[in-house]
């Protein structure tokens, strides 16, 4: 009888686990008030150590500070192994101290990168069990380590970065491969409360109906600090054909909107860049057009507040459902009447009670990428990255639909 009950319990446990796996993974997204950057929480290893990891949309893999990390279930990925090939490991990593995560010999070489310090370190690839509150357990999850001295720029509570790039060891790819799920994930960054990072099945049908679609394109030249010649970029690019301010297109050269043979130009989406950065030759006419349109709405200009160039008197701006009532900004995309509208809550940044600024920054006269869509412009927008069909589905501001990321 006891044996039968054990078998029955085991059967239901397997059934629940399989159901959870097929439902994919959903983990919370929170916003750090000091840095305005977004992070999520996972657990790693036999001790289920809690790790707050900054979300890096274009990052190749998970890395975190392993200095104080202890786990009895971690394993180094050997040099020259199949798993090392999958991770695109470079060379071998060794360490003369007692073995632990972040210190082992004959280990597949990794190059974790902190973009805020512009710091690339030599490390190894490891694997261990990843746990979430979902509750989905991911065995043999590949990751790398970083020394705790190289965490500058991350939120104070964060000790790592979670990569969602186009690699075989990004979070979504590992989960899709292990649980036979479609390789797709969605992000919803909250302006307040808790948002969601979901891997696997898409958004609810009600929200899906309102999403627009545009192709994801590949930059043929890697944008990572270290790469092999011929490697494409792991980051996510879309084709912006033009920009409209208050319904009127900017007079900007088409060449800025395309990616040349050297991988320069085009538009990418970044969760590392706080505010959308525009090539200087795009930013100047954009700021002028916005300021003129704002003036037509009786919005008064005031002194600029760095890093912004166009600022306005808060008392002259009305508020509506989608935030400050200001001229709309549209990123015009391929297709018939397809555009990504950036409304007031995403286009403006409230400095204080007196000053509100246009939340776009000058990206300089020689940037690698002409337009980098930043995290502020992504807040309260639902984004689904479908790597199966190579498409981005996006909502624009959920506030217009009287909902938000924290209520999905």
UniProtKB/TrEMBL annotation:
Where found, per UniProt? Secreted, Extracellular space
Q: Which Pfam families match?
A: TAXi_C, TAXi_N
Signal peptide per UniProt: 1-21
Instruction: Please report the stretch or stretches of sequence annotated as the Peptidase A1 domain.
Output: 38-395
Can you tell which superkingdom this protein's organism belongs to?
Answer: Eukaryota
- Alphabetically, which GO biological process terms does the record hold? proteolysis
One GO cellular component term = extracellular region
Keywords, ordered alphabetically: Secreted, Signal
Q: Tell me the GO molecular function terms.
A: aspartic-type endopeptidase activity
Annotated membrane-spanning segments are none
> Which PANTHER family does this UniProt record tie to the protein?
ASPARTYL PROTEASE-RELATED, BASIC 7S GLOBULIN-LIKE
Family affiliation: Belongs to the peptidase A1 family.
Entry protein name: Peptidase A1 domain-containing protein
- The organism of origin for this protein: Buddleja alternifolia
């Amino acid at each position: 009888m006891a044996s039968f009950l054990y078998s029955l319990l085991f059967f239901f446990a397997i059934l629940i686990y399989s159901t959870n796996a097929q439902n994919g993974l959903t983990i919370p997204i929170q916003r750090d008030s000091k840095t305005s950057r977004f992070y999520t929480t996972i657990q790693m290893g036999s001790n289920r150590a809690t790790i707050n990891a900054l979300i890096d949309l274009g990052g190749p893999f998970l890395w975190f500070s392993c200095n104080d990390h202890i786990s009895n279930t971690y394993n180094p990925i050997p040099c020259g192994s199949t798993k090392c090939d999958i991770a695109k490991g470079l060379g071998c990593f060794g360490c003369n101290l007692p073995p632990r995560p972040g210190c082992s010999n004959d280990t597949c070489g990794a190059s974790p990168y902190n973009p805020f310090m512009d710091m690339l370190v030599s490390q190894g690839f490891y694997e261990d069990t990843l746990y979430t509150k979902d509750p989905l357990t991911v065995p043999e999850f590949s990751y790398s380590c970083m020394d705790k001295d190289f965490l500058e720029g991350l939120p104070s509570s964060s000790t790592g970065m979670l990569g969602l790039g186009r690699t075989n060891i990004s979070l979504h790819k590992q989960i899709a491969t292990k649980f036979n799920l479609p390789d797709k994930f969605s992000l919803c960054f909250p302006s307040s409360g808790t948002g969601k990072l979901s891997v696997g099945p898409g958004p609810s049908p009600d929200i899906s109906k309102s999403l627009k679609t545009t192709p994801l394109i590949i930059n043929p030249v890697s944008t990572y600090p270290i790469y092999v010649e011929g490697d494409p970029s792991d980051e996510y690019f879309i084709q912006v054909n033009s920009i409209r301010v208050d319904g009127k297109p900017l007079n900007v050269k088409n060449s800025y909107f395309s990616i040349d043979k050297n991988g320069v130009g085009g538009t990418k989406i970044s969760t590392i860049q706080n505010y959308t950065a525009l090539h200087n030759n795009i930013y100047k006419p954009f700021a002028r057009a916005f300021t003129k349109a704002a003036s037509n709405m009786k919005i008064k200009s005031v002194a600029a507040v760095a890093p912004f160039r166009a600022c306005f008197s808060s008392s002259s701006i009305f508020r509506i459902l989608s935030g400050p009532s200001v001229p709309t900004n549209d990123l015009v995309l391929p297709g018939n009447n397809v555009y990504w509208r950036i409304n007031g809550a995403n286009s403006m940044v409230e400095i204080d009670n007196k000053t509100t600024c246009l939340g776009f920054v000058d990206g300089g006269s020689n940037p690698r990428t002409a337009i980098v869509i930043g995290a502020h412009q992504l807040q309260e927008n639902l984004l689904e990255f479908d790597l199966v069909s190579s498409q981005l589905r996006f909502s624009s501001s959920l506030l217009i639909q009287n909902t938000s990321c924290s209520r999905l």
